[in-house]
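Entry 14. Two folds queued back to back today. First construct below, sequence then structure tokens.
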Amino acid sequence: MTPIPEMKHELLYHERIVRSVANATREDARQLMRLAGEIPLRTEVETFPLVDANRALAALKHSQIRGAGVLVVGRG
């Protein structure tokens, strides 16, 4: 097989930041889930109606979303 030529990441996705994702085994996930059951986890989610997708993207761009931003269909 011929190697895939190198390409700048921003040409593909127009991202300014590349965040890494750790590789984990199934046992790592099992241990994480056991630990998660033992400690109080609090998630933070901010929902946006789909019609406000541009506002959600602007908030994301300016780091104004704490936790996860979710687009919701059927609200608005």
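Second construct, same run, same settings:
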Amino acid sequence: MTYDFKAINRLAVPAIISGIAEPLLSLTDTAIVGNMPENSVMGLAAVGIAGSFISALVWILAQSRSAISAIIAGALGAGKLDEVRTLPSQIILINIILSVALYLCTVPFAREIFELYNASGPVLDTTVSYYKIRALGLPLTLVTFSFFGLFRGMQNTYYPMIIAIVGAVLNVVLDVLFVFGWGSIIEPMGVEGAAWASVIAQLVMMFLTVYLAFKKIGFVWDLGSHANPSLKRLIILSLNLFIRAASLNVALYFANAFATSYGSVTIAAQTILFQIWLFFSFFIDGYASVANIVSGKLKGAQDFNGLKKLISSVLKISVLVSFVLMLICFGSYFYIGRLFSNDLEVIEMFNTVFWMVLIMQPLNAVAFVYDGAFKGMAEAVALRNTLLIATFLGFIPTVYLMDYLDLGLYGIWIAFTVWMLLRAGILIRLFKVKILPKNA
């Protein structure tokens, strides 16, 4: 089984578009809110703080998507799909229960939560208001992501792409209408309008996902009379990935907490920088998802020579794409910030640090490809330990040292660079000394 440039792109391009669905919602909110005629800096700060927390919740709970994808792909490669027939329904039900419980547990304490991010005054009030609306989309997003895991396990990235396009276009249109208003028909709602636009887009995406799953790939809601034999393995895999995602979001929490403590202009600039970093990361991760999607199938078929060739091919393309993105942004360097803010101080601070985000992209590409391959092979313990080391021995000590040296926003992105270096380096080492020799 070979995967050349054409075969990789056949899977990767739809995966890129579907993968950027959630960050695109946040990126759109950032651009629209940053250009409000009044209180744009406060709005950006609120969207950045609340968006960071929402992303943390989604990433932690959505790890079951990768677990579903790995197990379904492995079963597909081994010709044992019938053995996991009831598994998707059971994990989707668990995700619905968890996400609803999470909403009910966080909304009443939203003010206390965002005070931990150093938010106060009008910024805190706006953050809480934005979060209480955006949090309604948590169950919607997690159901959608669960089905995305099913699609990916079946080697189908086309349907997630269609769903993402519909959601992104709808979100942009609703963002403009709700934030700025439309004549006498729709009153301007500011930051709250951006939140409602995202929730409605997420609702439409969920309905479209469910429709395609039932009508197009023959998904049947079947909980079965007993827990699927693979459910325990999936839960253990998901728990390890939960811990991994939680440690990842510890880094994001410290980044936003430090940025907020430096002032509203700094957290506004950090919001734009991080949303662009996130967008690029998910863009590049579209190629990494090929490693995620196919590695499980190759492992199920015990084709480890094919796995090694796959990763090599995907790495070359991912790094090339990252350089193209980097060069495009350097070519339009002083125009990008203006898309996301009309405040001169925010734009100036953004421009002084943006180059650091750009030069990280090839490094991100390497880390994400190996990350995707390890997810596809269900090597969750390795992924968990890698993020624990990168966060607690890399990012946190570095960000505190940079704060002590008074490097401000520069220090936060130096810490992110150390974080990604550790993530990439550890996984490359593990792949060479553990995965390949063990399965030779």
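Quick look at the second one. Residues 289 and 394 are 25 Å apart (CA to CA). The chain has a mean pLDDT of 81.
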